[in-house]
Structures are given as C-alpha cells and as structure tokens.
C-alpha cells in the first residue's frame, strides 16, 4: 500500500473531464509555468498559506519563528515572513490563535483516498463522471496514483489523468495504462518559447503525446491561451496541427482562456505574481482558435 501527498480534493467539479468529478490535486510539479493557477502544488513537500486578513499582530509567530524569520510589519499589515530562513513554519500553523496560517497538503494511503472518493460514487454514476488526478504533476507520484486508480476502476469509477507529460515514458506508461482518459496540456509548440514559459523544453512532452495516442488511449487536449506568453497565432496553429496528427485518440480540444483566479494564492505563499499586469484573454481570439480547430477536423470547446 503506497502513500501519496495530496494538495487538496475538489468535489463536484465539472471542468476536469466528463460528468461530475472529484479532482485530486497532487503535490509537486516539475514545470514552472508562468501562469500557474495552483502555485501551492509546485514544491514537493507541505506548504503553508498565510492569511493577512486574519492576522492580529499578536506576536506569537514572531516569538516562535526560527532564525528570527518572522517580524512584525507596519500596523495593519500583519507580519513579514522570510520563508527561506524560517525552518519551523509548519510548527507555527498550530500556534497562531487566529488561524492566520494554514497547512497545505495531506498524506494519505491509496486505500484511504479511494475510500474517500468512493463516497461520491452515486454522483459519478448518475452524471457519467468520475475522478481526475491533477496537480501539480500527478505522474511524479505515479505509483501511488496508479494504485489508487486501479482501486477506483475495480469499483467501476471512470479515472482521468491530467498531465503535462514531462516525465520518462517508462514511468508514465504504466500510469496511462491504468486510467480511462488522459487530459494532456499543450502549452506551447515552439521549444524555445516553451522553455521560456515553463522552464523546460517540450520534446519529451510531444513524444509522450504520440506514444499515448499510439496506445489508443483517449486524449482530451487542453490549451490555455495566455496573452503575451503563448498566444502567437502561428504557434497556436502548430499546436492544433500537431494535435490533429494524433488521430482518433483525440476526443476533444478544450481551449481555455487565461484567468488570474490564482493570484490570491501567490500572496498567501509570499510569491510574486509575474503576470498581474498582462491583458485579459480576448474571447474573439479563442473563437478564432476554435474555428481553426474545427476547420482541420477537431472537435473543440471554449472554457474559462
């Protein structure tokens, strides 16, 4: 029985695959996408949110912090946290009398997670939904996710893997074999732009997409459009042209308009949000992308 580290579970989701689903956000990611909406899932261990609005500047955390890593800010502005110096931030979570700190992450065994998810089986069955493993990058905990997926499938639950595909094929393949659907992110086509936007190039990602398609595993292709980052029309067309080469394995292309819903998480983690000043994604552009996708024979939808 394997143990995994889960960031959170979102129940009754309708955006991560067919039907009503439970989305399990796994901890840890090996990409650094500039537009990441789940920054709390990036690092491999537990994380800590700090809520400025809950802070009463009582000084409890200031006194408890190792290496004098937490200091009082100006009145009304809470505290300053040096997360690199604060080696006991997790301990401070339970010390704050005003719940100003919150631990992100929970260890569970595959059986514990499967039992929890099976409580919503009636919703999955009624809506033709299921469970989606997302992140972070769930393939970084491939053995745990695979074991949990097999427990769910034994109970007739549809399982989807949401992955960026940046992982060795010999590790990814057993996980892909265990699920019913792969939701695959196509962030950029040009290798240098992909490196600039995510910290890695995409050669392995594209090769793995071909391998998944060759298995005949159903693929839900996803493209988030981020103004000034990956919205070059020529690159978008190349992404769609590549997706078309994957053939009948591709069930649908979801075109997603970039949003800033995750900006509050960056503030809670003390991380600067680099894209706060970029323009909103224009719906007219995603309509044009959808039109091109349909012209080349792909089924496409626009999401938020």
TrEMBL record:
The keyword Metal-binding applies. Keywords: 4Fe-4S, Iron, Iron-sulfur, Metal-binding, S-adenosyl-L-methionine. Residues 46-75 form the 4Fe-4S ferredoxin-type domain. Residues 15-299 form the Radical SAM core domain. GO terms for molecular function: 4 iron, 4 sulfur cluster binding; metal ion binding; oxidoreductase activity. The keyword Calcium does not apply. Its cofactor is [4Fe-4S] cluster. It holds the Pfam family Radical_SAM. This is Glycyl-radical enzyme activating protein. It comes from Citrobacter freundii.
């Amino acid at each position: 029985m394997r143990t995994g580290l889960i960031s959170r579970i979102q129940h009754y989701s309708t955006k991560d695959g067919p039907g009503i689903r439970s989305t399990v956000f796994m901890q840890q990611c090996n990409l650094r996408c500039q537009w990441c909406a789940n920054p709390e899932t990036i690092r491999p261990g537990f994380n800590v949110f700090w809520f400025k609005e809950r802070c009463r500047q009582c000084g409890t955390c200031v006194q408890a912090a190792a290496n004098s890593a937490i200091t009082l800010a100006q009145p009304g502005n809470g505290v300053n946290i040096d997360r690199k110096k604060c080696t006991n931030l997790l301990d401070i979570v339970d010390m704050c009398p005003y719940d100003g700190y919150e631990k992100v992450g929970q260890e569970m065994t595959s059986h514990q997670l499967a039992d929890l998810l099976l409580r919503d089986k009636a919703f999955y069955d009624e809506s033709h939904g299921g469970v989606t493993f997302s992140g972070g990058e769930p393939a970084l905990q491939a053995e745990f996710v695979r074991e949990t997926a097999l427990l769910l499938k034994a109970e007739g639950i549809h399982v989807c893997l949401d992955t960026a595909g940046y992982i060795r094929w010999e590790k990814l393949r057993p996980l892909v074999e265990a699920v019913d659907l792969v939701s695959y992110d196509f962030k950029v086509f040009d290798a240098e732009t992909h490196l600039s936007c995510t910290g890695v190039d995409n050669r392995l990602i594209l090769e793995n997409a071909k391998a998944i398609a060759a298995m005949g595993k159903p693929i839900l292709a996803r493209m988030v459009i981020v103004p000034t980052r990956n919205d070059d029309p020529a690159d978008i067309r190349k992404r769609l042209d590549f997706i078309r080469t994957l053939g009948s394995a591709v069930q649908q292309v979801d075109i997603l308009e970039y949003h800033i819903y995750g900006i509050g998480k960056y503030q809670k983690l003390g991380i600067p949000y680099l894209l706060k000043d970029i323009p909103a994604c224009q719906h007219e552009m995603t309509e044009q992308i959808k039109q091109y996708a349909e012209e080349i024979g792909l089924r496409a939808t626009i999401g938020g």
